[in-house]
Automatic annotation (TrEMBL):
Signal peptide: none annotated. It comes from Streptomyces venetus. Residues 16-70 form the HTH cro/C1-type domain. It comes from the Bacteria. This is Helix-turn-helix transcriptional regulator.
Amino acid sequence: MQHGPAVRRRKLGAELRALRTSAGLTSGQAARLVGWHQSKVSRIETGTSGVKPADVRLLLDAYGVADSQLRDLLMVLAGADDSGGRHHWWHAYRGVLPPTYRDFISLESQAGTMRTLETTVVPGLLQTPEYARAVTKAAVEGLSEERLDTLVEVRLARQDVLRADPPLKLSAVLDEAVLRREVGGPGVMARQLERLVEAARLPQVRLQVLPFTAGAHIGVNGPFVIFSFSSTSDLDVVVLDHLTSSLYLERKEDLRVYSEAFNTLQIHALSPEDSLDFIAGTAAGA
């Protein structure tokens, strides 16, 4: 279990090693192709040292990697501000957002699917501006109005992944407490529930409610996010949020356990159709 940057270095190194092997090159041959010492290639592949985006681009060219989506993802893992000529908007907030949050956004922007269990609040990708403001203000004490405005702006900008081409596929299981907790007052909550109903009808969103009647369930251990990537499953990662940081789990055993847990939660949750009715009913009674 590691913080984001360390996970990304190891994942990037493992993927570069696999690409080198697929290209039929030894680490020494790869090093000679790009004019480095073999030890530099080894350090990059084991994740023991950081790597510049320009160096990743050199290696990808040397390995003949033409897949633009894969190249873009690996450049993001290397910390590129601009991969494939496409600017990543969150770098404009480098002085405001902590590194772990920037890591999370970069993974979110490149993932093909996102599976999330939420036990306390509506997922950030589905929050209304008013709800996002109320949640952020409650979660981070002592925020100035300017900083609060910026964090809400970032939260809303993240939602563009659901409108991208292709869009992020979001599967969310919401504990009933998420719908019952009155965040920001009755008016804010009513609009947020309406937003969830709208989101549940989107083809790229699968929304399920885990009602109180389901009793105790594996999700009582806390919320989590699983990011999966269409280019390679080796880059899949589980993210656990804490008050001051995020932790990233990358081992295949961890991914298997959390994937099985999410599948179990989906089985015990209401169907998407029944969940839509449940949310609409909750909104009507709010």
